[in-house]
Design goal:
Length: 106
């Protein structure tokens, strides 16, 4: 009798543990799906050179210079114009912030 109660209790514990694991896996999968969807949405939005220069607060010619020097390689549209995604602009901001600007002599 006690052994049967023990087995029933043990089975219930295992079932609750499995349910918790499944629930946790589903939550993780949902979060992964959300992150993946957001990254897709961020990579879908495209900006032309002038718009990207406005966001970065640099002149349009500066972006052309960076591309010409090979410091940045943007994607191209069907007319072979450079286009920038949100991820590209974020990477440019990070890259630009790592550059050390020389101090002006006064």
């Amino acid at each position: 009798m006690l052994y049967q109660l023990y087995l029933i209790d043990r089975e219930r514990q295992l079932n609750t543990k499995l349910e918790k694991q499944k629930k946790l896996e589903n939550q993780i999968e949902e979060n992964d799906k959300k992150i993946f969807r957001k990254s897709i949405e961020r990579s879908d939005k495209r900006y032309n050179l002038t718009q990207a220069a406005g966001i970065l607060k640099v002149h349009r010619q500066t972006l052309y210079y960076w591309i010409k020097k090979g410091w940045f390689k943007p994607k191209r549209d069907y007319r072979n114009y450079p286009v920038f995604t949100v991820l590209d602009i974020e990477n440019l901001i990070k890259w630009r912030n790592t550059i050390k600007f020389p101090l002006k002599a006064t």
